[in-house]
Design brief:
431 residues, FAD/NAD(P)-binding domain, D-Amino Acid Oxidase, Chain A, domain 2, 14 helices, binds flavin-adenine dinucleotide
Length: 431
């Protein structure tokens, strides 16, 4: 048993934890970062957004990311499962060079780079250390953690909970979650080789295949490896009585576009599943703590927002602590409200896009954005992860959502067929 005093305890060494720890350590704080797993470790969340690049630049880790050999991502492609329509967004058509591209990343490698970067910045990160217990009083954060079969007691002045969806502090303090009014979903995914690739610069695009009960992602990770996942409503998945793997295979076989892309695919890893992941805490900050990344909330993977939100909220959380740090006292109420509202407004942009995506009528507008008034450019901003709009983007975004609503009553965009295409391929593909 040993005892130590830290400025900030960071729980979790994912993107939110490593980024916030690095920002604080660079600013001269004594930071302890606890990560229970050892790197490299598998994690889902492989497609980055260009508007997360800024934080990686601010962290000073952008050059390392650029040199790591990740697949460049220049845009996103949306395709109907029955091959009845497609639309591609190219970031550079609308956005300036810093946001014209980003990367598809294998998270085992990406998270490892960020974690090592936090260490190099001066954060203390004892490997495989798991937070066991935490409580807050007016002046301090008291906690214990397990490292090398020993329990260590320590204190810190502040805590950033970046423990992902386990949200250690959220659970400890029994924080209230908002009702986001979204149905529960389940994702099943694996890595494959032999998946069809787009040609030329579109090779690194994320491909989203829209099917009647949900969607597939295809994320090219390197020359050969592609991450492929199916997301569907938990309720309809349960009603089939299939296993996640059977459901994945059956759904591929029901959709012409997926059969085309997966006909030579061979699975490289076991299937993983994640279910019921949508939530957001009502409050993201308290006197001695802030929730960053998934620990504060996660809505849906469709627009690949997770890592970007993790990085941005980590930066804002670190800034809030540094402001409070001048006095050594608790994070002032005004600062907590600003942080909570910033997290909400960032995720609200994605919430609106996610609702749009799951509505067939609105999705028809998304797939055929009217060139009128440069609406497609504003939509590209959202697809690239911009959550802080200039006025010229803001009003176009509002017009886009108004058109999505209008599509329910008028034919603003061409109608799309959402039915399965029942390809007649024999024998059926199996994974
Ligand atoms: C199906 C699916 C697909 C997704 N696809 C994408 C995508 O394409 N792009 C994207 O940007 N996002 C995607 N996401 C979201 C993405 O996975 C997360 O938003 C992102 O990983 C959040 O980062 P984080 O740092 O907040 O949490 P995490 O990355 O989850 O990191 C939390 C860390 O905390 C550690 N930890 C937890 N408890 C403790 C403890 N008690 N002690 C010590 N350590 C602890 C964990 O081991 C973990 O390493 C997807 C999510 C799902 C469910």
């Amino acid at each position: 048993m040993s005892s130590a005093v830290w400025d900030t305890l960071v729980i979790g060494g994912g993107p939110a934890g490593s980024a916030s720890a690095a920002f604080l350590a660079k600013a001269g704080q004594k930071v302890l970062i606890l990560e229970k797993q050892s790197f490299p470790r598998f994690h889902i969340g492989e497609s980055l957004l260009p508007f997360g690049n800024d934080v990686l630049q601010d962290l000073g880790v952008w050059d390392k990311i650029q040199q790591a050999g990740f697949m460049p991502k220049l845009g996103a492609e949306f395709v109907m499962g029955n091959s009845a329509g497609s639309h591609s967004f190219w970031f550079r058509k609308t956005l300036p060079p810093p946001h014209a591209q980003t990367f598809q990343v294998e998270r085992s490698k990406f998270d490892h780079i960020l974690f090592d970067h936090a260490r190099e910045a001066g954060a203390h990160a004892p490997p495989e250390s798991s937070l066991e217990d935490i409580h807050f009083d007016h002046d301090m954060v008291n906690f214990s953690y397990r490292h090398q079969d020993q329990t260590h007691q320590a204190t810190a002045r502040w805590c950033i909970d970046a423990s992902g969806r386990t949200s250690v502090v959220g659970r400890t303090l029994n924080l209230t979650k908002c009702d986001l009014g979204m149905p529960k979903k389940i994702a099943v995914f694996s890595h494959f080789k032999g998946v069809h690739r787009n040609e030329g610069e579109a090779m690194g695009h994320i491909t989203i295949v829209r099917i009647p009960q949900g969607w597939f992602w295809l994320i090219p990770l390197d020359e050969t490896k592609t991450s492929v996942g199916l997301v569907q409503m938990l309720k309809s998945f349960k009603s089939t009585g299939l296993t996640p793997q059977e459901s994945f295979t059956q759904t591929v076989n029901q959709n012409h576009e997926l059969v085309f892309r997966m006909q030579k695919a061979q699975r490289l890893t076991d299937f993983h599943t994640e279910a019921d992941y949508t939530f957001r805490h009502r409050q993201a900050a308290g006197p001695r703590w802030l929730l960053a990344g998934d620990s504060a909330g996660f809505i849906d993977p469709i627009f690949s927002s997770g890592v970007m939100v993790a990085l941005r909220s980590a930066q804002l959380a670190a800034q809030a602590i540094l402001k409070a740090g001048k006095s050594g006292g608790p994070i002032p109420q005004a600062q907590r409200t600003i942080y909570t509202n910033a997290f909400k407004s960032m995720t609200n942009v994605f919430r609106d896009m996610i609702r749009m995506f799951y509505s067939n009528k609105a999705f028809e507008v998304f797939m055929n954005p009217n060139p009128w008034l440069q609406i497609p450019g504003a939509v590209t901003h959202m697809v690239a992860g911009n959550t802080v709009f200039t006025w010229s983007v803001f009003w176009r975004v509002r017009v886009f959502f108004a058109l999505c609503l209008l599509q329910r009553y008028l034919r603003v965009a061409p109608r799309l067929s959402f039915s399965h295409s029942s390809p007649s391929r024999q024998p059926a593909l199996s994974f």
